[in-house]
Amino acid sequence: DIVMTQSPDSLAVSLGERATINCKSSQSVLYSSNNKNYLAWYQQKPGQPPKLLIYWASTRQSGVPDRFSGGGSGTDFTLTVSSLQAEDVAVYYCQQYYSRPYTFGQGTKLEIK
Amino acid sequence: EVQLVESGGDLVQPGGSLRLSCAASGFIFSNYWMDWVRQAPGRGLVWVSRINSDGSTTDYADSVKGRFTISRDNAKNTLYLQMNSLRAEDTAVYYCAKAGAGLDYWGQGTLVTVSS
C-alpha cells in the first residue's frame, strides 16, 4: 500500500498570509505513460463532507478560488493557500489514486493565528 | 446539479448487517465509477470500496474484504454497500463519492454505529 504522510499535523497562519501543507507518498504516484501525478487535495470543514480542491496534483477544480494551488511531482507534493481567508479554516487531506487502496494522508488542520 | 444522497445508516449490534444506499442525480450515473469512503468519529478519511461504471469490477480495502459488497443499479441511479459481520471498528460516517480524477462529488454521509 502507498502510505501518504502529511506535514504538519496542524498549522496556524495569520489572515492574509501564506499557508503551505506538505504531502509525501511512500512511492511515486507519477504515471510515466501520461506524465500525470495521481494526487488530489481535499478540504473538509466541520460537519461537512470533503470537497475536491486539486486533482492531477496541480489542476484546480472548477469553482475553487485561485488562492489555492498544488505543486510537486513523484513523491513530494504541496498545497498552498496564498492568502489565508477566514473561510479556509478546515482540515486538508491529500489522496493518491495511482493504485489501490486509494490512500489518504492523515489530514492537516489549518487554523487562524 | 450533481447530488449524492446516502441513506441506511443505523445503530447495529456487532456481527450484524446493514445496507447503505446512495441515490445519484444530476449526472449520467452509468458513465462513472463510484466509491465509498468512511470516516470514524474525529478521525481521517479511509477509502473503502470502488465499483466501475457497469458494475463488473469491484475493489475493497483489506479491512472490509469478504464482509462488504459494493453494487449498483444503473437503472435506478443508485449505489449500494452491503455490510455484513459488522465490527465496532466499522463505526463511521460513510460517504459515497463520484470518481473521476480524484473524487469530485461527495454525499453528506450516513452514520453507521456498531455497538451492543
Short characterization:
The complex is a heterodimer of chains A (113) and B (116). Chain A has 113 residues and is an all-beta fold.
How would you characterize the overall build of this protein?
The complex is a heterodimer of chains A (113) and B (116). By secondary structure, chain A is an all-beta fold. Chain A is built from no helices and twelve strands. Chain A has a six-stranded mixed β-sheet with strand order 2-12-11-6-7-8, with no helix packed on it. Chain A has a four-stranded antiparallel β-sheet with strand order 1-3-10-9, with no helix packed on it. Chain A starts with a strand and ends with a strand. The relative contact order of chain A is 0.33. The mean pLDDT of chain A is 97. Chain B has 116 residues and is mostly beta strands. Helix content of chain B is 0%, strand content 54%. Chain B has no helices and eleven strands. In chain B, the strands form two sheets. In chain B, strands 2, 4, 5, 6, 9, 10 and 11 form a seven-stranded mixed β-sheet that branches. In chain B, strands 1-3-8-7 form a four-stranded antiparallel β-sheet, with no helix packed on it. The mean pLDDT of chain B is 98. At the A-B interface, strand 6 and strand 7 of A face strand 5, strand 9 and strand 10 of B.
Question: Which features does this protein show?
Answer:
heterodimer, A: about 110 residues, mainly beta, 6-stranded mixed beta sheet, 12 strands, globular, B: mainly beta, 4-stranded antiparallel beta sheet
List the helices and strands and how they pair.
The complex is a heterodimer of chains A (113) and B (116).
Chain A: E1 4-7, E2 10-13, E3 19-25, E4 30-31, E5 36-37, E6 39-44, E7 51-55, E8 59-60, E9 68-73, E10 76-81, E11 90-96, E12 108-112
Chain B: E1 3-7, E2 11-12, E3 18-25, E4 33-39, E5 45-51, E6 58-60, E7 68-73, E8 78-83, E9 92-100, E10 102-106, E11 110-114
Parallel strand pairs in B: 2-11
Antiparallel strand pairs in B: 1-3, 3-8, 4-5, 4-9, 5-6, 7-8, 9-10, 9-11
